[in-house]
Design brief:
With 347 residues, the chain is α/β, with parallel strands linked by helices. It has 2 domains: 245 residues, RNA 3'-terminal phosphate cyclase domain (UDP-n-acetylglucosamine1-carboxyvinyl-transferase, Chain, Alpha-beta prism); 86 residues, 2-Layer Sandwich (Dihydrodipicolinate Reductase, domain 2), CATH 3.30.360. It contains 9 helices and 16 strands. It has a 4-stranded mixed beta sheet with strand order 1-2-4-3, covered by helices on one side. Helix 3 links the parallel strand 5 and strand 6. Helix 1 runs parallel beside helix 9 and helix 5 runs parallel beside helix 6. The relative contact order is 0.13.
Length: 347
């Protein structure tokens, strides 16, 4: 059993470690889970990850409760993952995009189709909105062999949550990620904007105002490839805007009570302009979320910065024998990999 220390890491460390345990069939014990967080231990969104992976991998688990600071995860076997249909409920508005983040790598070990239905928060703080997952992250992973799709039945904003999604995952042969320093820079050639409001905010025209605020700040010479304004059913009022610049490169902002919708759009646009000014072909969210796929398939990935999430992600991968190294750039390289730099976006 692999023994891991989670005292200096957050939920991403737990998700990565459990996903690798499920893929490899190796048991893992994580102590001091989220030990340096204001509220340490498992929160509802982390517990949902444990429950989903335990069901999928027929694992024996101890510490399967909110607040648990030590958990053990013992997969039921080390062969391929059978697939099947599963369901999990993330209490209140816990993030569904981060739940999906933990399940996607399992495609590399699947022998049959997997469908996961989950309820919780689709567009909530401290995690990418659902449109980021669908329009920014998944398109890049599909270009590297992942067969996955997410359907959204209902949106869930803070505090009630109540969103409902379905993840469809097929057995996949992952391909090396070639997004090193020679990859094409991010630009506005494929700009797509997705602005969403709960039905309770429709009279205030929040989604349209968010989009217009973003476009005003971006000050484009031409029209974006796509602009989408949506009003959706939800148990709580809320709004979100996602700006897609390229597969793997996008930004977002969430509405808040008292914050003008135009300001929400401008904040997203400011983040997009910052990303455009950089040299990395992916954004900060993608930088740490792609590490597990880099470890499983090989390759080279230039990232915007070595964040805490990147550092703890590298630690979790190293604990399972996946050596990734950092080169100037900064660029993450799969240990022993011989993949040349290039831009898979052009394929």
């Amino acid at each position: 059993m692999r023994e891991l220390d989670g005292s200096a890491a957050g939920g991403a460390f737990v998700r990565t470690a459990l996903a690798l345990s499920a893929i490899s069939g190796e048991s893992v014990r994580i102590e001091d889970v989220r030990g340096d967080r204001p509220t340490p231990g498992l929160r509802p969104q982390h517990l949902a990850v444990v429950e989903a992976l335990a069901a999928i991998r027929d694992a024996e688990v101890s510490g399967e409760e909110v607040g648990a600071e030590t958990i053990t995860f013992e997969p039921g076997g080390d062969g391929p993952i059978a697939g099947g249909e599963y369901g999990v409920d993330v209490d209140t508005a816990g993030s569904l995009t981060l739940l999906v983040d933990a399940i996607l790598p399992l495609a590399s070990a699947l022998e049959g189709r997997l469908c996961l239905t989950a309820t919780g928060g689709t567009d909530v703080a401290w995690s990418p909105p659902i449109d980021y997952l669908r329009a920014v992250k998944l398109p890049l992973l599909r270009r590297h062999g992942l067969s996955a799709a997410v359907e959204v039945d209902r949106r869930g904003f803070y505090p009630a949550g109540g969103g409902r999604i379905r993840l469809h995952l097929e057995p996949s042969t992952l391909e090396p990620i070639r997004l090193g320093p020679d990859a094409a820079p991010v630009d506005t050639g494929d700009l797509r904007l997705y602005s969403t409001e709960a039905a309770a905010l429709a009279d205030a025209d929040v989604a349209r105002r968010q989009l217009e605020g973003a476009l005003d700040r971006l000050a484009l010479d031409g029209e974006p490839t796509e602009r989408l304004v949506r009003t959706v059913a939800s148990d709580s009022p809320g709004s979100a805007i996602v700006i897609h610049l390229a597969p793997g490169a996008g930004v977002s902002a969430l509405g808040e009570p008292g914050k003008p919708a135009e300001r929400v759009g401008r904040e997203a646009a400011d983040a997009a302009l910052e990303l455009l000014d950089g040299e990395a072909p992916v954004d900060r969210h993608a930088a740490d979320q792609l590490l597990v796929f880099l470890a499983l398939a090989g390759g080279r990935l230039q990232i915007p910065a070595v964040t805490d999430h990147v550092e703890t992600g590298l630690d979790a991968l190293e604990a399972f024998g996946h050596g990734l190294s950092l080169e100037p750039g900064p660029t993450v390289v799969a240990d022993g990999g011989t993949v040349a730099d290039g831009d898979d976006r052009a394929k």
